[in-house]
């Protein structure tokens, strides 16, 4: 029997670590850091409009520091896929939704914001300006942020975040199993010095040596003889007022007006510069400090997954953590999660529709008043006592 290549790939893949909170005793698998004594607490909760269990932030304006260890592994010569779900039940306004992948040397008891990690990945939201997916790699002891602005989701629904790193120094970021960013690690992060630098021995030539002017004034153009006209002239239609007394008021002068024949400052017309050489570009040379590295993607040791973050308003649920060496494995699991997310979206809409119907029903339930124009007739036909009786009846109806 011939086995499909996709099935062979799945059979050969390895789940490096997984946590969906379907097994009891999550408290024994996850360690609360004691580096500080005022960290926020996580609690096990189910999602809003779904039954997905996960770790939920429970206290506002808190730092959180919780982690779980796993069997140490290296991703050298292997694909690494990191995937998890995030649901911001609180419609988050400022806070992190990312995970950190630590080496096994980091202790869960002492994990904190300055603990060195290998990779940080996931959504981060703060106000209107920051709604991005962090993809940060530690390279030779320094954290490097991605140069792209990769947008994250900021609604109240569950979303899947996936990072794929491959041995050819390539990466992909997926949201809800759809690619949102991809490329080469060397190009989208500043891990290495630039391959080329400006030649320090070169300098911009003088204009006589390198003319950058696309156009120049026409040397053969001359100013017309009748060009020079004053900008303002005496108003030819003005007349001295009849009551003007030159002995008392002085010599009368007509007011000045704009000269319709004034042409402004003369300038010769432009022509193409016959000496134009184009914009000068500083020549580059190979950077002597650059050295390629085909192992940027690789880490010798992964051993702990941590939720080390800050939230102004609590209510985020983290779940369905997966680390594997197979994109197919992660994609298959994401496809199953998407089914739950479709049901979640339908449940959210049903709830919103029910609330809208209930709000509209309040108006429908109000009794209509038993008065109309025909019954009331012309109000001018009523005296004050009759009008008072009518108003009393209207109040009773209300």
Helix and strand topology:
Blueprint: H1 5-12, E1 15-19, H2 26-29, E2 30-32, E3 42-46, E4 53-57, E5 62-73, E6 80-88, E7 94-96, E8 99-102, E9 119-126, E10 130-139, E11 142-145, E12 158-166, E13 170-175, E14 178-184, H3 185-188, E15 196-198, E16 215-217, E17 232-234, H4 246-249, E18 256-258, E19 270-272, E20 284-286, E21 302-311, E22 316-324, H5 327-364, H6 373-376, H7 384-397
Antiparallel strand pairs: 1-22, 2-5, 3-4, 4-22, 5-21, 6-12, 6-22, 7-9, 8-9, 8-21, 9-10, 10-11, 12-13, 13-14, 15-20, 16-19, 17-18
Keywords: Calcium, Chaperone, Disulfide bond, Endoplasmic reticulum, Lectin, Metal-binding, Repeat, Signal, Zinc
Protein name: Calreticulin
Region (Disordered): 196-249, 345-398
Structural class: alpha+beta
Instruction: Output the CATH class name of the domain at 5-195 and 294-350.
Output: Mainly Beta
Q: Tell me about the biggest sheet?
A: 8 strands, antiparallel
**How many beta-strand runs?**
22
Assess the beta-strand content as a share of residues.
25-35%
Q: Write the CATH fold name of the domain at 5-195 and 294-350.
A: Jelly Rolls
Rounded to the nearest angstrom, the radius of gyration is: 38 Å
Second-tier CATH architecture of the domain at 5-195 and 294-350: Sandwich
Average the pLDDT over all residues and give the rounded result. 90
How much helix is in the residues?
10-25%
Number of discrete helical segments: 7
Order of helix and strand elements from N to C terminus: HEHEEEEEEEEEEEEEHEEEHEEEEEHHH
Shape from CA axes? elongated
Ends distance: 80 Å
- Uncertain runs: 5-10, 365-371, 373-377
Family: Belongs to the calreticulin family.
GO molecular function: calcium ion binding; carbohydrate binding; unfolded protein binding
Disulfide bonds: 94-126
Protein name: Calreticulin
């Amino acid at each position: 029997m011939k086995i499909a290549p996709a099935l062979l790939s799945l059979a050969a893949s390895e789940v490096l670590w997984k946590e969906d909170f379907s097994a009891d005793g999550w408290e024994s698998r996850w360690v609360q850091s004691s580096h500080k004594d005022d960290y926020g607490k996580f609690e096990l909760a189910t999602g809003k409009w779904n039954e997905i269990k996960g770790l939920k932030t429970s206290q506002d304006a808190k730092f959180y520091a919780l982690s779980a260890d796993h069997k140490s592994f290296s991703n050298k010569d292997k694909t690494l896929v990191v995937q998890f779900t995030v649901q911001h039940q609180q419609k988050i306004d400022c806070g992190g939704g990312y995970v950190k992948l630590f080496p096994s040397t980091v202790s869960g008891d002492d994990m904190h914001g300055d603990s060195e990690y290998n990779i940080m990945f996931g959504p981060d939201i703060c106000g209107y300006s920051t709604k991005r997916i962090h993809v940060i790699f530690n390279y030779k002891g320094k954290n490097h942020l991605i140069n792209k602005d990769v947008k994250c989701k900021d609604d109240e629904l569950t979303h899947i975040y996936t990072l794929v790193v491959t041995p050819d120094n390539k990466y992909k970021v997926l949201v809800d199993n759809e690619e949102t960013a991809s490329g080469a690690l060397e190009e989208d992060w500043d891990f290495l010095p630039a391959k080329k630098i400006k030649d320090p021995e070169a300098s911009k030539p003088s204009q006589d040596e390198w003319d950058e002017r696309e156009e120049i004034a026409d040397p053969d153009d001359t100013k017309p003889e009748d060009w020079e006209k004053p900008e303002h002239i005496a108003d030819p239609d003005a007349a001295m007022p009849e009551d003007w007394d030159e002995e008392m008021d002085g010599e009368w002068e007509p007011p000045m007006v704009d000269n319709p024949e004034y042409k402004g400052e003369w300038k010769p017309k432009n022509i193409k510069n016959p000496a134009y050489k184009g914009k000068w570009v500083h020549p580059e040379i190979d950077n002597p400090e650059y050295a390629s590295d085909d192992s940027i993607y690789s880490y010798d040791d992964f051993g702990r997954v941590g939720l080390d973050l800050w939230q102004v308003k609590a209510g985020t649920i983290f779940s369905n953590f997966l680390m594997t060496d197979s994109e197919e494995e992660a994609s298959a699991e994401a496809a199953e999660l998407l089914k739950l997310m479709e049901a979640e979206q339908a449940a959210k809409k049903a709830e919103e529709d029910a609330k809208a119907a209930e709000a509209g029903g309040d108006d429908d339930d109000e009794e209509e008043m038993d008065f109309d124009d025909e019954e009331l007739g012309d109000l001018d036909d009523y005296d004050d006592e009759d009008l008072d009786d009518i108003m009393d009846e209207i109040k009773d109806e209300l």
